[in-house]
Amino acid sequence: MKDISAEILTWALLLFFISLYFTPYIIAIGNKKKAAGAIGALNILFGWTLVGWVVALFWAMNKEVSVPHTPAPRLMDTFPPLLTASTEKQCPDCAGMVPAEATKCRFCASDLTVLRTAQRQESNSR
Length: 126
Fold this sequence. Notes:
By secondary structure, the chain is mostly helical. It has 2 domains: about 1-60, no CATH class; about 80-125, no CATH class. About 55% of the residues lie in helices and about 5% in strands. The chain contains 6 helices and 2 strands; from the N terminus they run H-H-H-H-H-E-E-H. A two-stranded antiparallel sheet has the order 1-2. Helix 2 (about 25-30) packs antiparallel against helix 3 (about 35-45) and helix 2 (about 25-30) runs parallel beside helix 4. It is rod-shaped, with a radius of gyration of 39 Å.
């Protein structure tokens, strides 16, 4: 009878110490930590040192800090807007696109004031 009770006590103590050893990993799983596997690995590999076990325990008990994700600015947002079709006009001599306010073509140096007056007359006739 003494042999069976001693054996049961031995197994109970062994189970208690194993569960105590894996307490950080059990806590990490219970808290649904993303790093539960890493905590378990730290616990298995370095838990036999008291420092490794304490580090794993603190890691398992700490709250996860969620850092809000801020998307990086798009490349197109960093440059000034390009000229659009409504702010450009085409030079009648070289067919280059120039700003609508331009009086002289930057490509062929032709006079665009004639084009501007023709456009004004056309818009007035509508």
